[in-house]
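Here is a protein:
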Amino acid sequence: MCLLKGKKVYIISASKIFLCDANFTILENFAFAFDEVILEIDKIEILKRKYPNAKLIETKPNSLILPAFINPHTHLEFSANAYTLHFGDFFIWLKSVINSRQILSQEAKEELIANTLTQMQKTGTATIGEISSFGSDLKPCAKHSMRVIFFNELLGTNESQNA
């Protein structure tokens, strides 16, 4: 394994790599070298020469590498919501959230929240900003491989709901 300043270096290649640049460039038959961050993007042969001891990560034919998405405002405690909240006008929606969130939070068990996190990862989300009213989503977030920034929300809460 190649060590760059004490860090392990990896190389992963793909049939296509989507760059999130101004032109939405798609690179064909490229690779990138990384440790904790992407070090370089180039043809795999060039990266193998530059990082001869790097660990190669195999990908399947016709693979595509995309940047991960960040959803900065999630409410996993409402994972049980299917038809309860009223969408459209913000204040009507907000009132439906305040009126329904305790019931929705009670229905959103750890397994449902974990499944929701897994589904989000499958669609390309790697990091979330979780907004929590009751804290019932903390444990499944801590156990999951999703990167989570956790916020405690006070909007519309009262002591009797938190007892």
Remarks:
- The CA atoms of residues 81 and 104 lie 6 Å apart.
- Residues 2-65 form a domain with the Urease, subunit C; domain 1 fold (CATH 2.30.40.10).
- Helices lie at 44-50, 90-107, 110-122, 138-143, 159-162.
